[in-house]
Design a protein that fits this description.
The chain contains 10 helices and 2 strands; from the N terminus they run ααααααββαααα. It is globular and about 55 Å long. It starts with a helix and ends with a helix. Helices cover 65% and strands 4% of the residues. It is mostly helical and 249 residues long. It has one domain. α3 packs across α5, α4 packs antiparallel against α5 and α5 crosses α7.
Length: 249
């Protein structure tokens, strides 16, 4: 979100800031459980999964909605892709067992870039129809990286394994047998959730009542939301320094 837009719609930044704090807490527990071996029984189970999904869904939907405020989408997308590349490089060098490829920053950057050529076409669609179509496609493709069409445990169509033979297609949601990533958000299905956020704002964002409700800044949280990229890039380094490195001494 641009600085001007964020000052007008502080609640959106506040939501991003709250989501950021939730993500930091989630990653702190991830480090404790999966790297340091601390037993937290509920974390690898359904409650931990629902927590993780609430974070990524919120981030991606908000990013899609805030795409409307981007005055320089090419620059914005390239910065996010570059941030994703830094995360990949850092995990490869510092902790290769937790390598991140095509994580959420890469997804958001590629989605912002893809929307540049698609925007004229998408803006011609009725926002309500676009929102419903994006959510339907997201649900249909949710299991694509796992080899099927369907949502979570609802497996509608099993896809041929021949589609999953090249690691280079992992960015699309078709990971090969050698691909691995501890934080994996391919374009399919997640680009459709990004589009859902884009269409959601197109549907409600023109309402003066909605804008008035989203105008107030939320103390602390709006500040965090305005600086979410820097905090995202730094938070895991801080967590590793606080939790993991002392355990290795």
């Amino acid at each position: 979100m641009s600085g001007a837009a964020s000052s007008r719609l502080g609640v959106l930044d506040g939501l991003r800031g709250a989501c950021l704090l939730s993500m930091i807490a989630y990653h702190a527990l991830y480090d404790l459980v999966y790297i340091l071996g601390v037993p937290i029984d509920w974390y690898p189970q359904l409650p931990g999964y629902l927590w993780q999904q609430s974070i990524c869904w919120t981030f991606i939907l908000l990013s899609g909605a805030c795409r409307h405020f981007s005055s320089r989408p090419l620059r914005h997308g390239l910065i996010l892709v570059g941030g994703g590349a830094l995360v990949t490089l850092a995990t490869l060098l510092v902790m290769p067992s937790e390598l991140i490829q095509y994580g959420v920053l890469t997804l958001l950057g590629l989605s912002a870039l893809l929307l540049i050529p698609l925007k004229p076409l998408l803006d011609r669609l009725p926002a309500g129809a676009g929102l419903c179509g994006a959510l339907l496609l997201f649900g249909l493709c949710r299991g694509l990286p796992q080899g099927y069409l369907g949502f979570e445990s609802l497996r509608l169509v099993e896809l041929p394994r021949a589609l999953y033979q090249w690691d280079a297609l992992a960015v699309l949601g078709l990971p090969g047998p050698g691909f691995r990533s501890s934080d994996y958000f391919p374009l399919l299905p997640w680009f459709f959730l990004y589009l859902a956020g884009y269409f959601l704002w197109a549907l409600v964002g023109k309402s003066p009542q909605v804008r008035a409700a989203l105008t107030p800044a939320v103390p602390v949280l709006s500040f965090l939301g305005r600086h979410s990229l820097v905090i995202y890039l730094a938070h895991q380094i801080v967590l590793w320094a606080a939790l993991i490195f002392p355990a290795t001494l």
